[in-house]
Amino acid sequence: MGRSLKKGPFVDRKLLKSIDTMNEANEKKVVKTWSRASTVFPQMVGHTIAVHDGRKHVPVYITEDMVGHRLGEFAPTRTYRGHNADKKVVATTSSAAPAAPASTTPTV
């Protein structure tokens, strides 16, 4: 469900203020934020924002394609390590059936 058009897009005021001050001073620094719900604004393009993913800050370089999206979309919170059941099935089938030796004599 999207945000009401009447309210407009959400962005953390402190984050937007720090981006605006960096734009005025013409400097580029990494800005840490915990606000994953903040919308990417055009002023943020070209900056690196470290978005918190629950355990660490993930650096995200903002490009034009990201404008309108949320910061949390670019910092995944879960690490996918595969399905353990699939690994067990592959391991048991490869070790249970040894390969047959290749014969050099042709069979007729």
Helix count from the secondary structure assignment: 2
- The secondary structure category is alpha+beta
Order of helices and strands: HEEEH
Q: Which percent range describes the beta-strand content?
A: 5-15%
Question: How big is the Rg?
Answer: 25 Å
The count of DSSP E runs of length 2 or more, i.e. the number of strands, is 3
Output mean pLDDT: 88
Q: What ranges have pLDDT less than 50 throughout 5 or more consecutive residues?
A: none
Features:
single chain, 108 residues, alpha+beta, three-stranded mixed sheet, elongated
Written overview of the protein:
This protein has 108 residues and is an alpha+beta fold. 24% of the residues lie in helices and 13% in strands. The chain is built from 2 helices and 3 strands, in the order αβββα. The protein has a 3-stranded mixed beta sheet with strand order 1-2-3, covered by helices on one side. The longest helix has 13 residues, at 13-25. It is elongated, with a radius of gyration of 25 Å. The termini are far apart. The model has no long low-confidence stretch (mean pLDDT 88).
SSE topology sketch:
Layout: H1 13-25, E1 30-33, E2 48-52, E3 57-61, H2 84-96
Parallel strand pairs: 1-2
Antiparallel strand pairs: 2-3
Concise account of the structure shown:
With 108 residues, the chain is of the alpha+beta class. It is 24% helix and 13% strand. The protein has a 3-stranded mixed sheet with strand order 1-2-3, covered by helices on one side.
